[in-house]
Amino acid sequence: MVEILVRGEAVERAAAERATVTVQSRWQADAPDEAMGRVATGHARVAAEAKAFAASGAVESWHADRVWVSHHREWVGEGQPQRLVFTASASVTATFVDVEALGAWIGDLGVEQLHEVGGIAWSLAEGTERELAGRARSRAIADAVARAADYAAAAGLGTPAITSIREPEATAPRPPMAKARGIELMAASDSGAAIELAAGELEVRAAVEVGFAAEADRAGD
Q1: pLDDT-derived band at 216, boundaries 50, 70, 90
Q2: Whole-Å CA distances, 200 to 35, 89, 179, 181
Q3: CB 182 within 8 Å of CB 101
Q4: Average pLDDT over residues 96-113
Q5: For the chain, what is the domain count?
Q6: 174 pLDDT band (50/70/90 cuts)?
Q7: Which Gene3D superfamilies match (predicted)?
């Protein structure tokens, strides 16, 4: 009896279905009330728009943080007193299912100095990810069986039988290469035009370690 241990792998791909983005409203001023007031107004607008997108079905979920303020001393020049600067900030995070709506929103927000858009995190719907993971695992087992059969044949052994199955590590979708593309385009936009976003594909990978046992092939005896 000979033991054979192989690793099977498989990849399933699908176009991203969700785009999560964070919009931060941020402003600096000499007085805390000025900074807070400017951010509170802009933040309220962003939150209201996210809520409207959710009502229309373009956004799956969203949440808004509270406005907060901090301060620091800024160097002005040699021999001059430092300037006390107050910074107010607040953010809204939304998960879009309508990529075109997201592109239009980013283009609209990009013309205002108050708002900063963070990187877009692409993802799959839970059902899609679960389906792809199941298919990837099945193909990983098939890959392991094929590898073991190749080794057994090369070593003059009979058909290997599975004795153990082990998943070495959890797998997760890989982010697409286009993750930050929309933000780069937004930075170059000054007209409020919609930004064309390309999500690309996400990968769901599966890996499995499978143990086999095979006996010497006695067909020729």
Answers
A1: confident
A2: 39, 32, 9, 11
A3: no
A4: 91
A5: 2
A6: low
A7: Protein of unknown function (DUF541), domain 1 (3.30.110.170), Protein of unknown function (DUF541), domain 2 (3.30.70.2970)
Domain match, 39 and 11 both: no
Beta bridge partners of 210: 6, 165
In this structure, are 27 and 115 located in the same domain? yes
Q: Give me the residues paired with residue 95 across strands.
A: 20, 61
Q: Which two tokens stand for residue 180?
A: 């930050």
What does the alpha-carbon distance between residue 136 and residue 134 come to, in Å, rounded to a whole number? 5
Continuous H helices in the chain: 32-56, 99-109, 126-154, 181-188
By residue count, the chain amounts to 221
pLDDT band at 180 (very low <50, low <70, confident <90, very high): very low
Domain boundary among 123, 152, 176: 123
Residue 25 shares a structural domain with residue 47: yes
End-to-end CA separation in angstroms for the chain: 17
Q: What is the largest CA-CA distance in the chain?
A: 99
Residue 196 lies in domain: 1-17+124-221
CATH at residue 37: 3.30.70
| Both structure tokens of 182 | 């929309």
For 176-220, what is the HEC assignment? CCCCCHHHHHHHHCCCCCCCCCCCCEEEEEEEEEEEEEECECCCC
